[in-house]
Specification:
globular; alpha+beta; ten-stranded antiparallel beta sheet; 30% helix; 31 strands; 810 residues; 15 helices
Length: 810
C-alpha cells in the first residue's frame, strides 16, 4: 500500500511538473513573439518596429469585415475559388498571417494596441470564422499542402499563444483539433484524403512541422505530442548522403535536387535555434548528442555563404524571384538566427558566431545608416533586434573580417571564393543538382542561374538588390555560356539535369582551387549547346576557360552584365581606349587584350585580361520588366534598370573556346600593368583538359575532363590521371602539396601520375596510397563515397626536382 501511495505521489508530482512545463514553454514562446518588453522602448529601432506593428495592425483591423455572414474577412484575401488552387490555399495562410500580426500587436507592450478590446474581439472573430469556413478538423485540403500543414498552423498557433487566456476554451479546442487533423505527425505528410503519405519529411519542412506539433502539444497540454515533436528532431540531425538535408561538406538540399541553403536552409536554421531554445527551457530538453551538428552547420553551411551580410544568390533557389527577399535581407535573417543559436551554443561556437554576425553588422551598408533600419519583408523581430543589439554593443565581441580563401560545396555544385574586398559565388549543375527550380509559378526565368552563373560581391552592395531579378536579361547572366535558347513556361518541380557528370573541383588548404563543369543544355532549354567551363581560383584573381563549345545557334560567353546606378555612364576602357558611354550604345572590339569597368561605387571596379586577344561585344541597355513576369503572384508594375555587359561572341560553333582573367577591385592602371606581364598562364584548354599555372603563387591546377590525358607546365609534361579528375598543386621550398577530387562522383579510385620524383611523403589523407615515388610519383586515391571532396597530401620533392622555375614572378 505504501509503495502504491509513493508511486501515486510521484506520478502526481511528475504531472504537475509537466503542467508547469507546458505553461513555461508557452510563456517562453510568447516572449519570443513579443520581444518581452516590460517598459517603453528607448532604442529608436525597437520603437520604430513597435510603431510599425501598431500601424499595420490598425490597418488590418480597419479593413476587416466583422459581419458573421461575410464571404471573406478581407476583400483582397478572399479568393477561395481561384482557378489556380495554390493561390486559393495561399489565402488561408494569408488570413492567419494577418490574425497573427493583430495578435502580436495585442500582446506586445508599446504597440499602442496592447490589450485593446476591439482588437481582441476582431482576432477571436477571425479565428472562429476561419475555423468554421476554411480550416477545421475533417476538411479535405486543396492547392499547396504547405499552406495546410506548415504555413497556416504555425500562424494559427502563434495567434493562440499570443492571445492566451482571451481565447475561449471551446474555440481553442476547435483550432487545435484542426491543427492535429492536418499535422497528425511531424515526420509524415498528410494527403488530401486524410491518409499519411509514404516517405519521411526532411530538411526544413520536417523542422517546421516539428514546431507545429510541439506548439500544439504545449497548448493542448499533451506530453505525448510534445515528446513526439522533440524526438522528431533527431532524424534531421545526422548528415545525409542523398535527398533533403545537410551534407558533410556543408551543402544543404531541399526538394531533392536544389541548392537551398539561402531559403529552406534559413528556415531550418531558424527552426533549429527556436526548437533548441524552446525544448531546453522545458521539462523535455533535446538529449540527442547529434545536436552538436547544428553548431557545425552554422560554421560551415551558413557563415561561408554570407558575404558582408548578403546570402549569395546561387543558394536561394526560386526565391530570387521574390521581390521582398533580397540577398541582404536574407542575410540579415541568417544573422538573427545565428545570434539566436549562439545562446545555446558551446562557448567557442558562440564566440565564433557572434563575431561573424558583428562583422556583417558593421560592414553591411545596404540598409542605410543602420543595420536595423529599413524593415523590409524580412525585418528582424523585436526579439531578434535585442539579440543583435547585444552583439553590436558588446565590446568583448570582436568583429570578424571576411575570411580569404576557397570553399567548395560539391554535394550541391556550388563554390565561393573570397579575396581582398570581394567574394565570388559559382553556381553549377549536374545529374544530381538541377539547373534551377520553378514551382508555385515562381522563378519563371531561372533557366541559366545554375549553368555557370558567376556572382561578384564587393563594395557595391546594391548590385543584386532593387529590381535586379525583374530586369536582368535572364539569358545573359554573368559567367554563363548561352545561346539564348530558353523560352516559354518551365515545368513545375522538374529536375532540369545536366547529362554531363563532371561538375565540381578541388581546393588546396582552402586557399586555391579549380572548379569545372562539363555541360549540356539539352534537358534544360532543349538546345544542343554543350561544352566545358572551368575556373582557376588563384588568390585575388580568377582565370575562366571554356573549351569544346558546340552550338547550332549563335552563342556567347557573358564576361559581365552589370546593373548600373545613377546616369549609367560608368567608364569602360578596352586596351586603354574609352568605350561609348551613351545609353543604348553597342560596340564590337576585335583583338582586345584587356578591359576595365568602373563600378557604381568606389572599390567596385573590375579588370579583365584576355590571354588570347579576343573580340568583345560591349552593350549598354535600359531594360524593363515586372516582378509578375517571374513570380506570378507579385506586382505587375513596370520597373526599369540600366545594364552594361561585356560578352565573348562564339557564333555557331563546333569547337569554340574562350579565356579571360577576372581581377575584382582592380583599377584600370593595375589591370593594364598586370595584363602586360601576367603571372597566370593558360597551360591547356581543350575538350580533353583545362589547366593553368600561377608562377607568383607557384600553384598549378587542372580540370582533366577525361582519363589518360597528360597536361603540361611550360610545355613540359607534368601530370595525368587514369579517370576524370580535378587536381591542384603547390610547390614551396622543395615541398609539394597536392589536392585531388573526383568531380563525377562516380569513380572508385583515381590513379594519379605526377611526372616528378619525390623523396618522401610528408602528410597523407587516409584515402591516398603511394604506389611509387621514383622515377615519378604515382598515387592511388580512393574516392568511392567521397562525394566529390578534395583529398590532400604533401611530399618532399627529390633533389633537383621542380615544378616551377627557380625564380617565380612576383
Amino acid at each position: 500500500m505504501r509503495r502504491r501511495l509513493l508511486a501515486a505521489i510521484a506520478v502526481a508530482a511528475c504531472c504537475a511538473a509537466r503542467a508547469d512545463g507546458f505553461d513555461q514553454m508557452r510563456a517562453a514562446w510568447q516572449l519570443r513573439l513579443t520581444g518581452g518588453l516590460s517598459q517603453p522602448a528607448s532604442d529608436p529601432h525597437i520603437a520604430g518596429a513597435l510603431e510599425l506593428l501598431g500601424k499595420q495592425a490598425r490597418e488590418q483591423l480597419g479593413r476587416m469585415n466583422l459581419d458573421p455572414a461575410a464571404s471573406a474577412l478581407w476583400p483582397d484575401a478572399g479568393d477561395w475559388n481561384n482557378a489556380y488552387p495554390i493561390f486559393a490555399s495561399a489565402n488561408v495562410t494569408r488570413n492567419y498571417a494577418r490574425l497573427a500580426l493583430m495578435a502580436r500587436a495585442y500582446a506586445t507592450r508599446g504597440s499602442g494596441l496592447y490589450q485593446d478590446q476591439a482588437l481582441r474581439d476582431a482576432v477571436l472573430h477571425g479565428l472562429d470564422w476561419m475555423d468554421r469556413h476554411h480550416y477545421h478538423a475533417g476538411q479535405v485540403y486543396y492547392g499547396n499542402w504547405w499552406d495546410w500543414q506548415i504555413g497556416t498552423p504555425l500562424r494559427l498557433l502563434d495567434t493562440l499563444v499570443l492571445m492566451d487566456d482571451a481565447v475561449p476554451a471551446e474555440l481553442r479546442s476547435r483550432c487545435l483539433a484542426a491543427v492535429d487533423h492536418f499535422v497528425p505527425e511531424a515526420d509524415r505528410k498528410r494527403t488530401p484524403q486524410g491518409t499519411l503519405a509514404p516517405g519521411q519529411e526532411g530538411g526544413a519542412n520536417l523542422l517546421d512541422k516539428v514546431l507545429v506539433v510541439a506548439l500544439s502539444g504545449v497548448l493542448g497540454k499533451s506530453a505525448a505530442r510534445v515528446e513526439a515533436a522533440r524526438d522528431a528532431i533527431s532524424p534531421a540531425l545526422p548528415y545525409v548522403r542523398s535527398g533533403d538535408g545537410f551534407y558533410a561538406d556543408g551543402s544543404f538540399i531541399q526538394h531533392f535536387t536544389v541548392a537551398y541553403t539561402g531559403n529552406y536552409g534559413v528556415v531550418a536554421l531558424e527552426d533549429m535555434a527556436r526548437l533548441i531554445s524552446l525544448f531546453n527551457a522545458s521539462a523535455w530538453p533535446v538529449r540527442d548528442p547529434l545536436v552538436a551538428n547544428v553548431y557545425r552547420w552554422a560554421r560551415e553551411a551558413y557563415v561561408p555563404l554570407v558575404y558582408d551580410g548578403a546570402m549569395v544568390n546561387g543558394v536561394r533557389g526560386r526565391k530570387i524571384s521574390a521581390a521582398g527577399q533580397t540577398d541582404h535581407g536574407v542575410g540579415r535573417s541568417v544573422a538573427a538566427a545565428l545570434a539566436d543559436l549562439a545562446q545555446s551554443a558551446p562557448a567557442e561556437d558562440a564566440r565564433f558566431l557572434r563575431s561573424a554576425v558583428k562583422g556583417w553588422m558593421q560592414r553591411d551598408r545596404s540598409f542605410g545608416a543602420s543595420y536595423l533600419g529599413a524593415p523590409g519583408d524580412r525585418a528582424p523581430t523585436i526579439h531578434d533586434m535585442r539579440l543583435l543589439q547585444e552583439i553590436a554593443l558588446d565590446p568583448g565581441i570582436v568583429a570578424a573580417p571576411e575570411p580569404a580563401g576557397v570553399r567548395l560545396y560539391p554535394s550541391m555544385d556550388r563554390a565561393i571564393m573570397r579575396g581582398p574586398g570581394f567574394g565570388l559565388a559559382f553556381s553549377l549543375f549536374s545529374p544530381r543538382i538541377s539547373a534551377f527550380e520553378y514551382g508555385n509559378r515562381e522563378n519563371a526565368r531561372g533557366w541559366w542561374t545554375g549553368a555557370g552563373m558567376l556572382s561578384l560581391y564587393g563594395a557595391d552592395q546594391g548590385q543584386f538588390g532593387g529590381n535586379y531579378w525583374a530586369t536582368i536579361d535572364a539569358q545573359r547572366l554573368p559567367g554563363t555560356t548561352t545561346d539564348h535558347s530558353a523560352g516559354g513556361k518551365p515545368r513545375e518541380w522538374f529536375h532540369y539535369a545536366n547529362s554531363e557528370s563532371w561538375s565540381g573541383g578541388a581546393s588546396l588548404r582552402g586557399q586555391y582551387g579549380v572548379l569545372g563543369m562539363a555541360f549540356s543544355m539539352k534537358a534544360v532549354t532543349g538546345s544542343d549547346l554543350a561544352g566545358k567551363k572551368s575556373w582557376f581560383l588563384m588568390g585575388d584573381k580568377v582565370l575562366a576557360l571554356g573549351g569544346g563549345i558546340r552550338a547550332s545557334r549563335p552563342a556567347e560567353t557573358i564576361v559581365e552584365n552589370l546593373k548600373l546606378e545613377g546616369t549609367g555612364r560608368n567608364a569602360v576602357r578596352i586596351d586603354g581606349r574609352p568605350v561609348a558611354a551613351a545609353p543604348g550604345s553597342q560596340e564590337v572590339i576585335a583583338g582586345a587584350g584587356w578591359a576595365h569597368i568602373a563600378g557604381n561605387v568606389p572599390g567596385a571596379d573590375a579588370g579583365y585580361c584576355f590571354p588570347v586577344r579576343s573580340t568583345l561585344a560591349v552593350l549598354r541597355e535600359e531594360r524593363s520588366g515586372s516582378w509578375s513576369e517571374i513570380h506570378e503572384a507579385q506586382s505587375r508594375a513596370v520597373v526599369r534598370d540600366r545594364y552594361l555587359s561585356i560578352a565573348l561572341p562564339h557564333g555557331v560553333a563546333q569547337n569554340a573556346s574562350y579565356s579571360y582573367l577576372l581581377m575584382p577591385g582592380a583599377s584600370a592602371e593595375t589591370t593594364a600593368a598586370y595584363c602586360a606581364q601576367p603571372a597566370i598562364a593558360v597551360e591547356a584548354n581543350s575538350d580533353a583538359a583545362a589547366a593553368a599555372s600561377d608562377r607568383g603563387l607557384r600553384v598549378y591546377a587542372a580540370a582533366l575532363w577525361q582519363g589518360g590525358e597528360t597536361v603540361a607546365i611550360g610545355g613540359q609534361p607534368l601530370l595525368r590521371t587514369d579517370v576524370p579528375a580535378a587536381v591542384v598543386l603547390r610547390e614551396q621550398g622543395g615541398r609539394l602539396e597536392l589536392s585531388v577530387s573526383d568531380p563525377t562522383q562516380g569513380a572508385d579510385s583515381i590513379v594519379l601520375d605526377l611526372l616528378r620524383p619525390v623523396a618522401s611523403a610528408l602528410t597523407l589523407d587516409p584515402a591516398i596510397e603511394v604506389l611509387q615515388t621514383r622515377p615519378t610519383l604515382r598515387l592511388r586515391v580512393r574516392v568511392a563515397g567521397a562525394a566529390g571532396r578534395s583529398v590532400e597530401g604533401s611530399f618532399q620533392l627529390a633533389d633537383g626536382a621542380v615544378v616551377f622555375a627557380a625564380n617565380p614572378v612576383k
